């Protein structure tokens, strides 16, 4: 398919930090301190470049790189580049507050410019966006590569928007037409991401939590998405509102070819895999990890892995490929919560044998858990704590349930008034738990969940209980580096260092613990709850 005329296309990534946060101060996410590559728009840019060739000019503006000055940068782009199409990526609700100003500037510069919005947050709120944002011409339904190519390939772009199956417009909403996905079937077409659109030196990510973190001093990190889709229906995931459960894959050959390119071109030494279900096709996953081993990389899969697909051969291949830390997407230690609330097809009995195999291969083992789902009770949360201790996880990450738009959880919360009635796009503070049920207030769940965290990760830390004090100390140092006022990190770091006969460092850590307790009543309360007497070692 060829373009009928050369078109200038500007791809814009909306700022996505929570309101009131800055790069230096935010602890909101792994990408809040360092900037993650904008995966979605880079994939779209790569696809358009391949399919449109030299018939189109593409430029990129990532507003997250200069949150204070992106408006002036946008104005400069509009004046100099004069785009016919501006495609805006809105992956997070909290980006919405910028959309009105940005779309207005684009139309002010040239009212004929076609302004479209895409991304999972936009898909989930397309009708509201078109109602509230008069300068937005259309919203892409799910993936944007094919819809955007078809748009810029059309002679009359606004007419095309009004009638294409994958674009939501005011006209399509009035006529009651249901949008349909236009999906790339062969991911080989987009797995080889073209980084020439951005300055790679602007991007990096904080390493996932692990005592093995920060071993590479000069990280050259890139991401990889080898598959798309998810067959599961976890209530808190945006996939839960999508009836399409199909999976699509890039070939192993294309994946390895791209890795080889990243190593030779950019000197990549850290590879972060962002598939939702990298292990679903187990034999394919084994081949990928088998062939990654020769590159001598550090491998991360921070989005979590399912224990249902992990056998000893796969675990060994993951380790040889360069993975030393594994994140298990367990979600709950309560079978009732897993089956009846989350709808996750995981049998609790699967976890311990996998943990034992991971332990044999020297992994740091971390579990992901979700707390605060409607219907979950304290007995279930206590069951999760007991499960974690029995299974022997090195660390457990507790997330408070977030009712993301498009998820079944959002529908449940809205229908039962568990969240603020009529909460608008962008008003949901991702830093704050907002679900209130008849049984539990949001404040109660927050405190209960934090006690769970302190219990399993500090008071009953697996490595401390098994006298692996050096690894435990490294983990506590990592916590203290990320959260300098975390009293329990210093207390247990002091205990580990004392056993290691590092008296001076131990005393320093204990002094810091006492200082925090002196100035923070909340930490004093936590210390009293767990019977930690801060004036004694």
What does this protein look like?
This protein folds into three domains: 168 residues, 3-Layer(aba) Sandwich (Rossmann fold), CATH 3.40.50; 254 residues, pyruvate-formate lyase- activating enzyme, CATH 3.80.30.20; 70 residues, Serine Threonine Protein Phosphatase 5, Tetratricopeptide repeat. It has 537 residues and is α/β, with parallel strands linked by helices. 44% of the residues are buried. Helix 1 crosses helix 6, helix 20 runs antiparallel to helix 21 and helix 21 packs across helix 22. The protein contains 22 helices and 14 strands. The longest helix has 18 residues.
List the helices and strands and how they pair.
Elements: E1 7-13, H1 39-52, E2 56-62, H2 70-81, E3 85-89, H3 96-109, E4 114-118, H4 120-124, H5 126-132, E5 138-140, H6 145-152, H7 157-163, E6 167-168, H8 170-174, H9 188-191, E7 221-224, E8 227-228, E9 248-249, H10 252-266, E10 270-273, H11 282-292, E11 298-300, H12 312-321, E12 325-331, H13 335-342, H14 351-360, E13 364-371, H15 378-391, E14 395-400, H16 408-415, H17 442-459, H18 462-465, H19 469-482, H20 487-499, H21 503-519, H22 521-529
Parallel strand pairs: 1-2, 1-3, 3-4, 4-5, 7-10, 10-11, 12-13, 13-14
Antiparallel strand pairs: 5-6, 8-9
Helix pairs in contact: 1-6, 2-3, 10-11, 11-12, 15-17, 19-20, 20-21, 21-22
